[in-house]
Structure formats: structure tokens, C-alpha cells
Amino acid sequence: MKSFYFQSIADLSKKIASKNVSPVELTSLLLNRIQAIEPALNAYIDVLADDSKEQARQLEEEVLQGKIRSPLHGVPIAIKDIFETKGRVTTSGSKLFTKWKSTADAIVVQKLKAAGAIIIGKTNLHEFAMGATTENPHFGPTRNPWNVNKIPGGSSGGSAAAVAAGMCFGAIGTDTGGSIRLPSALCGIVGLKPTYDAVSRKGCTPLSWSLDHIGPMTRTVEDSAIMLNAITDDPRAFVQLPFEAENLAGVKIGLLTGYFMEGLDDEVKGIFMQATSRLSALGAEVVEVQLENVEEALYAQQIISKSEAFTFHEPIFEKYSSDYGTDVQVRLNSAESVTASDYLNAQRLRKHFKGSALKAMEDCDVLLSPTNSREPLDIGTNPPHETIHTIFKLGKTPIGNYLGFPAISIPCGFTSNELPIGMQLIGKPFAEQQILSIGSVYENSERWIKKLELNQAYENEMNQDAVNIN
């Protein structure tokens, strides 16, 4: 029965269309699974049981009438609780918003519903998306499905944990410095950050409006493409399916050196290099590429992120600073010293850095790097004053937001502690088709997805809790 919850969206879609799977029964079964597993992981802030059941009934009627809206028709999907949902509370992970209800759905939610997706619930996140651990002081920490004492990564950690544990078939996250890709890597799933502005941010609480991206988190690359097609506003980001490539012959991959290979745990580096060798074995030509001025770019990225976050929060923060978590207070206070000149110079450097990166990519199709630098941290070990730096210590993702280029994290192996590792592909603007196609070829050669179904770590925790209760 467990394998039922780990089906791909692509396979499930065919079964729904052929009437072999009922959206109503599917939703009911998934709600039961969430109820059973949620105490061990704390992936959700709000499970939309009644709403999802009503959606399922309407969508099932359409199936019986022969109407299928898209491959997401009747498929339960989770959304990060940072997206507005009509008539429902959207907390953004904060106690300040626990009573605020929107009068409209965010654009991405509208698009998912129009595609026939069932919104099963709203997932936990780092408060206001300002952190890389999803240790939320108001709603509790989300736990990593591979080791419940570890963080799942953040800020979209609830979305990653829910997908990895079979509590939804896909989820939506946000990514400002790696908040889709890092938790996807640490939880062993696929995370896609599309090209900047390819997905509307309207109705999403901003962290940093010029760095924020919205994208899918799934168990397979194909499922990420299916979800992207449902939510993108730009036809240039639309992906043609099915993927046709069976190998990587003719593909030239730029292996990022310098900063991207520094500070890695030895085991993580070894696993990543094995994945690089696999790409070569599949026919890709792998060449070393070095981006110039990466450290300056990362510093500028922090300036932009802090400045834009403070600008959004300033009116609320002045009145209710004590209601923010300690780590978010530290982050917002650190922005007060940033000058207009600092911000403008950071954006000016950004333009030059993008041009430099595109020049470096002239001789290759995509760039390749590790996603995470190390295994996930233990819950409770990341001090509040370190929060702003955590994403830079855990992963190699922030540069993708500074560039605004599409980037995907794909599972590429497991450490000796049975914790997942991810590799990152970065494409040129609107090269979603290319990075997804390359990722699909690699994924099909390894089939790491099977390990998600076999994972027992969180189930062992549930069993232990049951023993303690008895």
C-alpha cells in the first residue's frame, strides 16, 4: 500500500484519466496518511481536509464526464503557507498573520486549481521564509524524513518533507537563496527554480522581490515539468513532454570550480564527483568553468536580500518586533545599516555578473555544481545570529537567485548516514527544457526515487512514539 503514495504525478494522471483511480478516494487516503505521519514530521501548518474533499468531488465529476484539464487533474498538491488562499489563513510562518485571511487566491494557486490540482494543505516554512532550516518558533520545526533529528533545510522545508514522505504528490515552494533547491537536496527530491519572473509572485508574501522565485518540488524531474507547465506565465519556460533524449550525447556541461567546490564535506564531494562521472558516462562532455567575482556577487546578494526584506517589513517590525522570532529579528536588524548606495551598487554589480556568467556559458550548455555542501544540521544547533549565513554554509544555491537563471536540484546519492545529496544544474535564461531534459536522463540512470519509498526513518519514529504512549 505504501507504494501507492509514491507514484509519480505522470503515472497517477494516467490512472485518473482512465478512471482506475478516483480523485475522491485518493484524497481521502492521502488525508489519512497525513494524519498518521504528520506528528513525526510537522510538515503542514494547515491541512485543508474539507476544501480538498470538495475539490475532489467536483473534479471526479469532470473525470466521469470525460473532461481532463491537465496532467494535474485530481492530483493532491501541497503549497507553502506563504501563498494567499481565498478565505483561509495564510500565516507566512508568523504568529503575526495567524488570523489574516485573503480575499483571493495567489496567482500560482489559481493556476493550480485551474489545472485541476487538489490543494491538500499548506506547508510549514522558516518564518517569513527568512532562513534555511525550517525551525519555526511559532509552529515548531519540520523534521527531515531521513533523520527526524535533522533539519529538512529551508525555507520550504515543509514542502520538501511532505513530498519526500508521500504526504502529497508534489508541492510548491519559494526560492530566494536556495529555499526550493536546498531542502529538496536534503530531503532527496527534485526542486526546480525557474527563470526569474517565469512564475507570477502575486499573492506570495515577499522576502526579496528581485530575488524571489516560485517553483515545484516533486519526486521526479518529469513531475517538475508537469507542475511548471501548470504555473508558468511565460511560454518560453513551457516544457515539451515527454522528454526524448535517452543519453547526453552532444551535451556540454560546465563543471563549476573555485567557490563551488570549496567547503564541501569529503563524502559529499566524493558523491558529487561520482555523479559527474555518471554524466560523462551518459555521453556528456564535462569541462571545468570558473565564474569570476563570485564572492563579491554573494555579498551583493545578501545586501539586496536584507534591504528588500527590511523595506517590506519595516512598518510591521517597528510596532511588533517582539512578535518575530529571534533569528528573524537579528536578520531584519542587520539591514538597518545598509545604505541606498550599498543597494544600488549591489544591483549594478548584478548586471555585470550576469553578463560575465553568460559569457562563461558560451562554451557549454549548462553549469553543474553540488547543491548542498554537507549533511543537514541537527535541529536546535543553528544559533539565531547565524541564520542569515546558514544558506551559504549549507549549500551552493544563492548564486542562482542573483543570476535569475533556471536551476534544478536532483538527488545524486546518499552518505554513509543514509542522508541524501543533491547536484545542481543551472541553465541559461528560459532553458528550463534543457536542464529538465538533462536531469531526466541522469535520473533514469540512477533511480534514486525508489529509496524514498523504502525509507523507514520517520516510520520508526512513529512506531517509537506509539511504544512510548503505550
Structure commentary:
This protein has 470 residues and is of the alpha/beta class. The chain has a single domain, classed as Amidase signature (AS) domain (Amidase signature (AS) enzymes, Alpha-Beta Complex). The chain has 16 helices and 13 strands. The chain has an 11-stranded mixed beta sheet, with helices on both faces. The protein has a two-stranded antiparallel ribbon with strand order 4-5. The longest helix has 27 residues, at 294-320. The relative contact order is 0.14. The model is unreliable at 466-470 (pLDDT under 50). This is Aspartyl-tRNA(Asn)/glutamyl-tRNA(Gln) amidotransferase subunit A. Keywords: Ligase. InterPro entries: Amidase, Amidase_CS, Amidase_dom, AS_sf. GO terms for molecular function: asparaginyl-tRNA synthase (glutamine-hydrolyzing) activity; glutaminyl-tRNA synthase (glutamine-hydrolyzing) activity. It comes from Bacillus capparidis.
- The dominant shape is globular
Strand content: 5-15%
The helical percent reads 40-55%
How many separate structural domains? 1
Distance between the termini: 26 Å
Structural class: alpha/beta
Which architecture name does CATH use? Answer: Alpha-Beta Complex
CATH topology: Amidase signature (AS) enzymes
Number of helices: 16
